[in-house]
C-alpha cells in the first residue's frame, strides 16, 4: 500500500503547484518577465510609472539587440535567427511602450512616433538585404557581418531618437 501511494504523491504535488500557477497568473501579470503584450483583460495601464518602465524596457532591449549583433557570429548559422528574434522582441517592447502613452502624447508626438516606426521598418530591411546578398552569391559570413554592423549602428541612432522624442513628449511625467 505504501509503495502505490508514493507513486501518486509527487505528481499530485506537482499538479497542485501547476494549477496554482495557472490560476494565479492572471493576478501576477506585472511580474511575468517575458512578453510585452497587454495584461490579462486587455487593459494597459497608462500611468507615468508604466511609461517609465516601458521606456526602460525598450532601452534595455535595444542594448540586448546590439549585444546580439556583436555576439551572433559565435553561434554559426543560428546567429541570424538570434538577431532576428532579438529584433522582434525589440519591436514588441516598443509596441508595448506606445500603448502606455496618453492620448495627448500620441497626438502631439504622432510624427515622432511615425518616424520611430519607420526606423524599425528600415532596420528590418537589413534582414532582407542580407538574404538578398547571400542569394546573389556573397559569402554568408561577410553578408552577416555587414548586416550586424549596420544594425548595431542604426539601432544606436534609433535609440537616440527614441530618447529625445520621449523627453519632448515628457514620457513618465504627470
Description of the molecule:
The structure is a single chain. The protein has helices at residues 2-24, 48-71, 79-98, 103-108, 110-135, 140-168. The protein has 174 residues and is mainly α. The chain folds into 2 domains: 1-29; 33-168, Four Helix Bundle (Hemerythrin (Met), subunit A), CATH 1.20.120. Helix 5 packs antiparallel against helix 6. The longest helix is centred in the last third of the chain and has 29 residues, at 140-168. The radius of gyration is 21 Å and the shape is elongated. It starts with a helix and ends in a 6-residue tail after the last helix. Residues 7-36 have low confidence and may be disordered.
Main features:
174 residues; mainly alpha; Four Helix Bundle (Hemerythrin (Met), subunit A); elongated
